[in-house]
Amino acid sequence: MRALLLAPLAFTLAAQSPREIITTLKDQQSLAVTIYNDNLALVKDQREVRLGKGEQALAFQEVSAQIRPETALLRNLTLPKDFWVVEQNFDFDLLTPSKLLEKYVGQKVTIVRGVPNAEGAGAKDVREEATVLATNNGVVLQFADRIETSAPGRIVYPKVPESLRARPTLVVDLHSGAERAQKLELSYLTGGLSWRADYVANLAADEKTLDLSGWVTLTNQSGAAYPNATLQLVAGDVNRVQSRRPAAPMMAMARMERDRSAPEMKEESLFEYHLYTLDRPTTLKENQTKQVALLTASSVPVRKEYLLRGDSYYYQGSYGDLGDKLKVGVFVEFDNKTESRMGMPLPKGIVRVYKRDSEGRPQFVGEDSIDHTPKNELVRLKLGDAFDVTARRKQTDYKSLGKQGAWRNVYEMAFEVELKNAKKEPVTVSVLEPIYGDWEIIQKSHNFTKEAAGTAKFKVEVPAEGSATLTYRVRVKW
After folding, report:
1. How far apart are CA 418 and CA 466, in angstroms?
2. Could you give the CA distance from residue 309 to residue 47 in angstroms, rounded to a whole number?
């Protein structure tokens, strides 16, 4: 279809009611945006608008395209006494060439096409009237003497229909007690705004400390911009009633910006959540991802652990060999405490860990996600599986002891876990055994701790470029 041409007066949206007052971002006095984890934000948009006295319609333009109209609240901060809202409507049928054509189904439009002059010097415009019959998968036009399935020229419209707007608009029918400039605040919930926390940790060469940086990644796909907004973020799991809502339009993110000049965000408790506030206004552009600084901490003490995890099915039958070259997980952990140079509630997010190589170049060594972590809690990250530390596990004995007292089944079994270390320095491997049933370890080569009712944890020292073997016998009743 050829390009569409709007009549010169059409784009003024002239069909608005004479009593309709329009407010845009140029009237904005202040803007505050509070963003929650689950694709939800609270917008408080304060504007100064000159209202007339009595009943009138206020078109609040440039609101979010994903506004939840049922949550909108308009307050008069200047003259609240004689001010009330009668009705409000959200107009989200936006002006586009295809929408404009749809609105003219059953109506007449003008088709303008260029016809070459007989002298061959340029072309002249020829105009024809046509009725738009349909716009499904194309356009069907009825001329005086024919029907065509594509526009043979430019389409000229007499005006823009009242139901189409250039931007998402909340239209409020209200009553004002005076004719004067008044400060109005519109607050509403909207989708399309989200945030997440991302962390970068740099391990020291001796792997005993790390430096941690936290960033907040903001994504705006709401269909509106938020210039010079006071930004606040809520971390926590806010309960929301799930309802069927129209799917929000997908929008491509245009770019990512990282604001490295931003200081750490201020944190405070809010109900059962935590609130983070940026100490200066920021702009969230439409279709943009932005990063602002959340926190920094240096020389945080960290502990590294090699962990071999077993399985409870080992204790429910006779199995023999239980695997060769088993993976040994690598974990690091640190305390979110003031004495560990931390102590700020951490929003959930992904922690990416780096360590410098022998040439001083940072290398990525693993990542893990954390849930919302309060102050004084442990942060534990699995970074991967060890390359140079491996294990072999086998069941060396299994026998049934029959019934003993109240226990219907009593078994005794023995295990051997061989750990190998190809590193040039010794390591300690934790062997975590989830034992099924009522159990008792009756023989062991290494001491253990009872981590939980069904868990035994052994710690085995493995020498450099050597091996060590853990053996134990357990009696299980069930």
Report:
1. 11
2. 60
Tell me the pairing of strands 326-335 and 455-462.
unpaired
Percent with pLDDT over 70 in the chain: 90
Q: Residues near 239 by Cβ (< 8 Å), separated by ≥ 6?
A: none
* DSSP class per residue in 276-308: EE-SS-EEE-TTEEEEEEEEEEEEEE-EEEEEE
Q: pLDDT digit string (tens) for 262-299?
A: 456 888 877 788 899 998 999 999 999 999 999 999 99
State which of 301, 320, 355 marks the end of a domain.
301
**DSSP state string for 242-284:** ----PPPPP----EEEEETT--PPEEEEETTEEEEE-SS-EEE
Check whether residue 275 and residue 316 sit in a common domain.
no
Q: Provide DSSP, 41-97.
A: EEEEEEEEEEE-SEEEEEEEES--TTB-GGG-EEEESS--TT-EEEEEEEE--B--H
pLDDT of residue 5: 40
Residues 6+ apart with CB under 8 A from 242: none
pLDDT tens, residue by residue, 381-424: 999 999 999 999 999 999 999 888 787 889 999 999 999 999 99
Beta carbons of 464 and 421 less than 8 angstroms apart: yes
* Same domain, residue pair 144 and 185: no
Q: Compute the distance between CA of residue 189 and CA of residue 49 in angstroms, rounded to an integer.
A: 22
Compute the CA torsion angle 430, 396, 435, 421 (nearest 10 deg): 10
**pLDDT for res 274:** 87
- Report residue 179 as tokens: 């004719």
Token pair listed for 320: 């023999």
Task: Give me the CATH number covering residue 389.
Answer: 2.60.40
Do the Cβ atoms of 327 and 429 come closer than 8 Å? no
Between β-strands 448-452 and 226-235, what pairing exists: parallel, antiparallel or unpaired? Answer: unpaired
Quick check: 291 and 258 in contact, CB under 8 A?
Answer: yes
15 pLDDT higher than 50: no
Task: Give the domain range for residue 404.
Answer: 303-336+377-477
Let me know the angle formed at the C-alpha of 278 by 281 and 349, rounded to the nearest 5 degrees: 130
